[in-house]
Amino acid sequence: MLARLARPGAPRGCPRAAAAPCRRLGGAVPAVPAAVPAVPAAPRPFEQVPGEWRAGWLNLLRFWREGGLSHLHLIMARNFRRFGPIYREKLGVYESVNILSPGDAAALFRAEGTLPERFRVPPWVAYRDLRHRPYGVLLKTGEAWRSERLLLNKEALAPELVPGFVPLLSAVGQDFVRRARAQARQSGRGCWTGDFSQELFRFALESVCHVLYGQRLGLLQDFVQPELQRFIEAVSRMFHTTAPLLHLPPALLRRSHGRTWREHVRAWDAIFGQADKCIQSVYRDLRLRRRSPQEPLGILGNLIVRDKMALDDIRASVTEMMAGGVDTTSITLQWAMLELARAPGVQEQLRAEVLAAKREAGGDRERMVRNTPLLRAAIKETLRLHPVAVTLQRFTTHEVILQDYRIPPGTLVQVGLFAMGRDPAVFPRAEQFRPQRWLGAGPKPFQGLAFGFGPRQCLGRRIAELEMQLFLMHILENFKIETMRAVEVGTKFELILVPDRPIELTLRPLEGP
Ligand code: HCD
Hints:
This protein is an alpha+beta fold and 513 residues long. It has 20 helices and 12 strands. The protein has one domain (16-509): CATH 1.10.630.10.
């Protein structure tokens, strides 16, 4: 009501002053009660948002000089300290408004409408254009995005899918445990020590492929097919080579012959080539009816059988899910294990919860997943400190007011997820790993945004959450997680946020088989 009174053009300060004398003269019109709050000053104009947004190329140059973009998350955190909870920025050709408070994130997402759009990573778009490949849901927009996204939600995200996903993902977790026990035995020291990033990449790819294709690839065995290893390397290389190309316009990229761009194209070629092989094999099995009815079809098989999406579109989105499911979950699991190794008390609490749930559920993994809230909270807490995505982004479709500034339609607004997670104003004692903080009374609106929000949130969220929960469950039941020294591990931006050095961990078998 008050907001509506503050029309543009109306005098600011004391907008009623002009009207008041007539009312008094009229007599019949009740006087304005003195207690009515003054109409708040109208929101400030966009131009007044603080920040350095006039020299886009200069900014980009400065970024590059300050150690490439690998510190993007730290530069953002610094900008929030310098400018406050909102600032404007221009990098290359892309301009954005950056926010950090959960309240502002709420205002942004509540206004996002039915066709939300995030920043479309230009080199990813450019690659598909170059190779004349269709976009998957990650890069699609408009009604085409919406209809496909709804179909994919039914196969990948809907809560009803949990009972089907759990056995597939649990089986892979169990294999990891088997492998870890064997490694511990063979080491001669009774435990398995090292940098687990490769092992976890394989675990994550095996997991996501089991739900996508209903097939096991055998990545947790001693011999790993070299082409699958190449796929894993290609995904990391694809992310790695995206970062330096991020702020260049697609048209420039496509015509460029730079080394990074060529490497980027080669990485995507390898990703699509391998995904196509997996997809073809499922497709062939289906046509030849080589699958027994009790075997799960997997997400791909279901999409084909439902016959509601063009095969090329299915392929595009399934490839995105396969590539998106490797580094994201495996790196989060590395961080989770590091945090648990450093907080033995929390680790014991989690183990106790898992073992109690196991006793109660008689080993029914689905029930265990439902009955381990602290474990879920531990994953949330890991993602608070170590989000995969440095920001969430939306293009506004109409005016939104953020921190009392008018943000016009068509603006790219970014929620600084990394900065928010470490902001003591949002998370008291932000530097501490305390999963318990998520279980306290009261809602925590727009604080756990690691998978985004709304219809454009992470499509792989269900798979990722279950995969990580089941993995940690199996690990906690079987091993003590330890870390050698108190080496500080920092974060670097390689499109996704990753550890800046190898994480050394030890898995020490508890008693058992
Ligand atoms: C990277 O400034 C930093 O789930 C940019 C803004 C940006 C846009 C989109 C984000 C990206 C960042 C990080 C990686 C994300 C991506 C959207 C999806 C992608 C968050 C924050 C990811 C990892 C899935 C990747 C799937 C791909 C392999 C097909």
